[in-house]
Structures are given as structure tokens and as C-alpha cells.
Amino acid sequence: MRNDGPPPGRTDRTMRSGDFSAHVAHEILVRLRERQPRVHAITNAVAKNFTANMLLAAGAVPSMTIVADEVADFTRRADALLVNLGTLDTERRAAIPLAIAAAEDAALPWLLDPVFVDASPRRLAIAQQLLARKPKVLRANAAEFEALARRPADRKGAIDLARERGCIVALTGPTDIVTDGRHSIFIANGHRLMARVTAMGCAATAVVAACLAVSDDALLATASGLAIMGIAAEVAGEKAGGPGTFPPLLLDALDALDDAAIAARLRCEQ
Ligand SMILES: Nc1ncnc2c1ncn2[C@@H]1O[C@H](COP(=O)(O)OP(=O)(O)OP(=O)(O)O)[C@@H](O)[C@H]1O
Ligand SMILES: Cc1ncsc1CCO
Ligand SMILES: [Mg+2]
């Protein structure tokens, strides 16, 4: 059961973009645990289970159905929608526009994770159409960013795309760039093992979706989600024997993450 209390997100006006800090990330994590927002995740078959467990470890409540005659209902009762293109089969292709329409109707934030748009012209065309529908956040790795944005995956490219598209751009890698086109935040947290197992980016976008569900400030929410993910990964990486033990340790670390760890470990510039 979800806690009683104020509905998630869209009421808080106390945070301003440009003020990212460990305190902000911790406050959003506390809100996640208190409010337990629902995240409807249309994600790929590879990332599905791990993403659901990462959402639970963050404090959110996942749902993942992709069936055409249910996906709008699931989206309407959620607090944020994730659209991930990783395994873009016919069922997901049908579900995605229905879910986005429901999110628009319900004024929910939705996020686009354009997995492998660099690999297929058809997928790239679909991602371009989805980007034109104005997701609140675009989260991509460098190759996906370059294919979608048709420019180098660097600070200037991310800022220019965010300005042109009116969304938050989160360009991830060893250092994450988060920008709304005016303010930019650079997060250096994370662990090399994140690049040695699949679905870390997919899960990161899902954690950002949960943060967006409890904050009006999409820039700070996105930075918070990526910082929380990166810091939990550092804690997990220090204990992991390799890529096999890393994912469950990351779930444990995210579940146990506290203000002391965030304050001690956050590495960001803005
Ligand atoms: N070498 C690295 N060192 C530290 N953190 C990293 C490294 N590579 C990626 N990360 C972190 O891993 C997360 C996922 O980013 P990445 O860009 O690798 O996603 P991705 O390529 O979309 O992943 P996937 O498609 O497998 O889900 C981000 O939080 C990022 O900061
Ligand atoms: C490996 C893989 N293939 C399609 S989606 C996915 C998960 C990483 O994005
Ligand atoms: Mg990815």
C-alpha cells in the first residue's frame, strides 16, 4: 500500500535549478520513500526485471505491462512514465503512443530512453517522432545521443539539444551531463562495473523517472536520480567481485542509501 499524504510531485516550489547539492538529492530520495510514486515502465525485455527491482529499491512502485488494451489505464494511475526502446517489438510499438497519450492527458512527466537508435534507421525514425512529442527528459549514452541529435556527444551538444527540444538532456557515461539548456550539472559518480553489465542505463532512466514523480524541478530531479544511481553503484562496486555480484549489491546499496553516503560521495560540478 502507498502512504497517505500529499500526492507525489508537482507541488514543491522550494527548489531552484542551479542549486544541485547532496542535500537536494537526499531530499528527493526521502520523498521517494515517503510517497512511493508509481512508475509505469515500458522497457525492454532485457532490463525489465532489474529495472522493476531498482525502482522498488529506490522507494517507487513499478508497473511494466505493455498490453495495448491496458497500458493507458496503467499509465493514468501512475506518477511518471518511462519509454525505453530497447526491444521494440510490435507490442511495444503499439503500446508506446497509447501510453504517451495517457501521460499527456493526465499531465504526467514521461521520459525517453532511445536505446540503440544508432543501430537501426527505423528505430531512429521512431525515436525522432517520440522526441517531437516532448518528453520531459531524454536520457541517452553517447552513441545514441549522436545518432538522435546529429551532433557530437559533448557539453555543447547536450545544451543545444536541450534548448532546441525544450527538455532535460541527460547524456550519460563516465561523467553524466544533465542540462536544461540554461543550467548544466556534471556528475562524476558511478563505477566501472556499470559498463560491464547490461541495463544500467535503462535502470538509471527509471530511477530518474521516479525522482521526476516527486519533484517539480525536472533538472534537479534528473541530476538527483543519476547521482543516487552513481553513488549506490560506488558502494556496490567496492564490495563486488565482478559483474556477476554487482547488480544484487547495487539493489542492496540503493535500498540502504542514506544522507551520509550521499554527502560523503557526491562528486558534481555545475
Ligand atoms: N565507465 C564508467 N564509470 C562510471 N560510471 C559509468 C561508466 N559508464 C557508465 N557509467 C554510469 O552507468 C550508468 C549508465 O550509463 P551508460 O551511458 O553506460 O548507459 P547505457 O549505455 O544506456 O546502458 P544500457 O544500455 O546497458 O542500459 C550511468 O549512471 C553512468 O553514469
Ligand atoms: C542488450 C540489450 N538489447 C536490447 S535492449 C538491451 C539492454 C541494454 O539497453
Ligand atoms: Mg541504454
From TrEMBL:
A single GO molecular function term of this UniProt record: kinase activity
Purpose of the protein: Catalyzes the phosphorylation of the hydroxyl group of 4-methyl-5-beta-hydroxyethylthiazole (THZ).
Record keywords: ATP-binding, Kinase, Magnesium, Metal-binding, Nucleotide-binding, Thiamine biosynthesis, Transferase
Protein name: Hydroxyethylthiazole kinase
Domain of life per record: Bacteria
Pfam family, one: HK
Binding site for ATP: R139, T172
Enzyme class: transferase
Catalysed reaction, written as an equation: 5-(2-hydroxyethyl)-4-methylthiazole + ATP = 4-methyl-5-(2-phosphooxyethyl)-thiazole + ADP + H(+)
Needed co-factor(s): Mg(2+)
Positions annotated to bind substrate: M64, A199
Keyword presence, Endoplasmic reticulum: no
SUPFAM superfamilies membership: Ribokinase-like
The keyword Metal-binding is annotated on this UniProt entry: yes
Similarity field: Belongs to the Thz kinase family.
EC number: 2.7.1.50
InterPro entries hit by this protein: Hyethyz_kinase, Ribokinase-like
